[in-house]
Design a protein that fits this description.
Helix content is 47%, strand content 11%. The chain is an alpha+beta fold and 305 residues long. The structure holds glutamic acid (GLU).
Length: 305
């Protein structure tokens, strides 16, 4: 496994130059474009790492999976799905189109930005700071990394330029999807996206999902199995933006990417995978990361189908 990790990193470096860094969050253009790293965590706790696995990047959209789990635990399925749908959109992650044109006006799923902002608004707490603290504690527990923290510069950068997300959130307030303080909800969302991680953290999240919500170290159930199943299903159908169908055919495992260059993947009952490669393709997925996970899936026959 260790050797194969080195091989796929070397084999796929060539794709990096074809991608770009996301300029709509200016701070993300400071990322190391040529970084490429991979971590795998098996359910017995064994870990494999290669390449730039110590490189720190912001979790971005991958955080949507974790906030969804917390919202499901706090509010229950019925409430969550009264506000957010269960269907893929086929549109870009930040699209506004279907929010207005399809009735009733609710975001199609929790993996697109509108859905994720609605989910963040559901997290219980008196202040947005308290909500973020709770979220961070949850992330730290799942990754077994007490040092996880927020990259202030990335957070502030997105807060300054995130007008499209702001527009989505205000629209959702108007149609009753968000009933709380919009700016507070956006603050939770921008901060959860700016949590700084390594591939090890991401792979541990993947292993936690693969283990049906049972903490690998303590054996304690942290999240209901049904909620984990819901999260994995959304990852499978909507996790790779509007390339999710192609990814399902070529790789065949639940995964979620983020514009920080990360990919979280989970092989149920087997392992968690964390990838970083900040150079993105035109859909917003790590351009070399996608190829690496494809190679990994082919070699170890990981497709769940
Ligand atoms: N914070 C980013 C945004 O809202 C996350 C997008 C992503 O990673 O897909 O645009």
């Amino acid at each position: 496994m260790q050797e194969f990790i080195q091989k796929i990193i070397a084999d796929n470096k060539k794709y990096i130059e074809k991608g770009t860094l996301p300029a709509y969050i200016p701070e993300l253009t400071k990322a190391k474009k040529e970084a490429l790293g991979l971590s795998i965590v098996m359910l017995d706790g064994k870990e494999y790492h290669g390449g730039d696995h110590r490189y720190k990047f912001t979790i971005q959209s991958i955080s949507k999976v974790i906030t969804l789990l917390l919202a499901l635990e706090e509010k229950g399925e019925e409430y969550v799905f009264s506000k957010v749908g269960m269907e893929p959109t086929g549109d870009p992650f930040n699209s506004m189109l279907k929010l207005e044109t399809v009735r009733p006006s609710k975001p199609f799923n929790p993996m697109i930005n509108a859905g994720a902002i609605a989910i963040s608004s559901m997290i219980e707490g008196r202040s947005s700071m308290g909500k973020v603290e709770k979220l961070l504690a949850f992330f730290r527990q799942i990754t077994d990394n007490p040092d996880l923290t927020i990259n202030e510069n990335v957070y502030l950068s997105e807060k300054r330029t995130g007008d499209r997300n702001r527009a989505l959130a205000y629209f959702m307030k108007d149609v009753g999807v968000i009933d709380k303080d919009v700016e507070g909800s956006l603050d939770v969302y921008f901060k959860q996206c700016a949590i700084e991680v390594t591939t090890q953290d991401i792979a541990r999240i993947g292993a936690f999902l693969a283990n049906d919500g049972i903490d690998l170290k303590t054996g304690k159930t942290l999240v209901h199995k049904k909620h984990i199943k819901i999260a994995k299903t959304f990852m499978f159908t909507c996790g790779m933006y509007n390339a999710s169908g192609e990814f399902a055919i070529n790789v065949g495992i639940p995964a979620k990417s983020g514009v920080g260059g990360g990919i979280l993947a989970t092989v149920p009952g087997k392992m968690g995978i964390g990838i970083v490669g900040p150079s993105l393709d035109d859909k917003g997925n790590s351009i070399a990361g996608i190829q690496m996970i494809r190679d990994l899936s082919e070699k170890y026959k990981l497709s769940i189908l």
